[in-house]
Amino acid sequence: MALFQRLIWGALAVAVLLGSVQTALQQWQAVPIILAAETFEAQKVAPVAAVGHGHDHDHDHDHDHDHDHDHATANANAESHEAHEHTEAGHDWAPTDGLERTTWTWVANLLHVFSLALLMFAVMGLWVWRRGATPAPLRLSFVVAAAGWLSLHLWPSLGLPAEVPGMDAASLGSRQGWWLLAAGCAVLACASAASLRTRWRWLASAAWLAVPFIWGAPQFAGDPAAGFSADAQAQLHKLGAHFIWVTGVIALTLWAGLGAGCGLVFQRWLQPLMLGAKT
């Protein structure tokens, strides 16, 4: 019971601190890009073909990427999703712009970081349980965080980069399926590198990483900015390229913060109790 309580409180402490930092970064860097892209949506003149269109406003790869894309990737794309999905699905309520929308974004970030911190603690705890105390919990934490960043952000985003509102995309189902394939193969690659004791482990890891790209990420057949004026298309492509870099930096900040925060909490609160329970 004591270990469980420390686990929850430790994850919550990391979530409050890091979730607040993520919200501030999103408001500073990602939200202005999203709002700028939204100004062009009313200019779209051509309907999107049903075959190649996965819900216009679901740009939450980091949700679908953050699960980053990372839900970090995650929550930056949720800003657009929250603002518009209710109008198409007939929802009666959505947070208003300003403090209410920012508050709910912060809550979403807090829950997201909380779940990732629990995942980090579980992996680190399994390592200690099987191999004994680690003399460098911070090092272990950053290694686990790097594996999480690779699996839940970088590898899926190489095939499905973050998108700004208004851009057409492949069907939502195919994108979700490929994201799961890329993330799952990256997890298996990291697990192979960490657990196998053969010289072939790096070859096995490379093979797992190659699988989703051999399969191929679903892509929209045509210009994602079709239906806009030439000037709007140029602006949207520019915003989209900037958005990819911004969400990448935010995701990297998230996982670096998880490495530091979870490492300190694990070293101070969790590892001593785990070793006492094991003996």
Comma- or semicolon-separated keywords:
single chain, 279 residues, mainly alpha, 8 helices
Q: Could you characterize what this model shows?
A:
- The chain has about 280 residues and is mainly alpha-helical.
- It is about 70% helix and about 0% strand.
- It has eight helices and no strands.
- The longest helix has about 50 residues, at about 230-279.
Strand content: under 5%
Share of residues in helices: over 70%
Largest sheet descriptor:
none
Instruction: Give average pLDDT, whole number.
Output: 81
Total helices: the number is 8
- Which regions are unreliable across 5 or more consecutive residues at pLDDT < 50? 47-91
- Distance between the terminal alpha carbons, to the nearest Å? 16 Å
SSE class: mainly alpha
Rg over C-alpha atoms, rounded to the nearest angstrom: 20 Å
Order of helices and strands: HHHHHHHH
What's the overall geometry? flat
Please provide the count of β strands: 0
How do the strands and helices of this protein lay out in sequence?
Blueprint: H1 2-38, H2 61-64, H3 75-89, H4 99-131, H5 137-159, H6 172-195, H7 201-215, H8 230-278
